[in-house]
Each structure stands twice: as structure tokens, then as C-alpha cells.
Amino acid sequence: EDQVTQSPEALRLQEGESSSLNCSYTVSGLRGLFWYRQDPGKGPEFLFTLYSAGEEKEKERLKATLTKKESFLHITAPKPEDSATYLCAVRSNDYKLSFGAGTTVTVRA
Amino acid sequence: GAVVSQHPSRVICKSGTSVKIECRSLDFQATTMFWYRQFPKQSLMLMATSNEGSKATYEQGVEKDKFLINHASLTLSTLTVTSAHPEDSSFYICSASGTGSPNQPQHFGDGTRLSIL
Question: What are the residue ranges in chain A where pLDDT is below 50?
Fold first, then answer.
């Protein structure tokens, strides 16, 4: 069974204070690791897909990296508008997504 | 691009009522749509996968007679919660994948908050 574990559960940052979120996974045949952002009362918003170890993707202040066992989402110089819950999900051979419980990031001005 | 619209955004109704939720892909055709349920501070749990023109595939523990799914076109899937009870209260979210590579990301609607009194 595919498993996704995200840490920490919650992260409180000062504006400009860079940090990283972790997503550890076990999957039978990785067909993509996905990062989403979810705001309260909304559906997840797609951020990145990573397919193979060593791959990196960037979007504004966010950078995602992938190894064979985990992925990191780096937030550089965060702003209050980066406050959200960040979800990690893996897709295996059956093309279903298995989600982690998420990391809730709060950025204070 | 890749916009998924979900309607209604919020439903409050009495126990025993059936509730229908619509999920539409607005600017792409979706061969496959997914229905999830999310409890507060918990992960998204896949309920079922629906493919256009065929029966939905339900995850273990999800009652197919309770949660009826129809995917009649490449842009619309519906979830009907039949004879809803308070324990069915939750946040229901749909997602859709395009008709290209199966490795495409899923794009999500904004969810439906269902409250059964």
C-alpha cells in the first residue's frame, strides 16, 4: 500500500524566513509526485509534478526537489500570502493519488 | 487552463434527503474524474474513480449504493449522496484528468461542504 508522510504538521514562519517541508513516501512504481496548495474551504491547487530522482521544479518562491524516498518543498523568503496547507501526493501504477495529511504553513508579517 | 468547477459549494439539508453534486471540467475534456472526501485536518481520501461512459470504481469501504456516481460526458460527473445522514457530513472534492497522457496532474474543484442536520 502506498504511504505518504508529511512533516512537520504545522509550520509558523516570520516573513522572509526560509524553510523546507518534507514528504516521505513508499510507493509501488512511482508515476509522479505532486505538490498542491490548499487554502481553507477550497480545493487543492496544483503546483508541481516531479517524476524522477534528482528532478527540481521552481515557481516563484517555491522549489520542489525529489529523491527516491522523499521530496522537499523549499519556501524562500515567504510572504503572508504563502500561508496555506501544502499537500504532497504520489501516483503509482494504478494511477490513483495517495495524499499526505499536509503541512499547514503560517507566515506572519 | 485546466479549470474544474464544482457545484454547489455548500449544502445544508435534513437527514434522509438525497443531495447531488456536480463536477465540470470547463476548458478540457476529462476521461477520468475522481471523487474525494476530506475530514477536518485530514488528508483527502479517494472515494471512487469515474470514467466517461462506464461504471465508477469504488474504493474499499465506500458504499456504491450510498454514493451514486454518473459520468455521462467528457466534461461532467455527478455524485449523489442518497438518503444522507449526519455521518455523511463532510467536504467532498472532485478532480479531473485530461484525455492526454495518464501522467497528467489532477485538477481539483473547490469542493462542496455538506452538512446534514
Answer: none
Residues B71-74: contacts with CB under 8 Å, at least 24 apart: B71/B33, B74/B25, B74/B29, B74/B30, B74/B31, B74/B99
Residues of B in contact with A4 (CB under 8 A): 43
Are the CB atoms for A13 and B65 separated by under 8 Å? no
Of A42, A46, A99, the CB nearest to B44: A99
pLDDT (tens digit, 9 = 90+) per residue, B55-77? 899 999 999 999 999 988 889 99
Q: For residues B57 and B34, give the distance between their C-alpha atoms in angstroms, rounded to a whole number.
A: 10
Judged by CB atoms closer than 8 Å, whether chains meet at A41 and B113 is answered as yes
**Three cell numbers, residue B83:** 438518503
* Average pLDDT score over residue span B77-105: 89
- Tell me if chain B has a CB within 8 Å of the CB of A100: yes
Q: Which residues of chain B lie closer than 8 angstroms to A32, CB-CB?
A: 103, 105
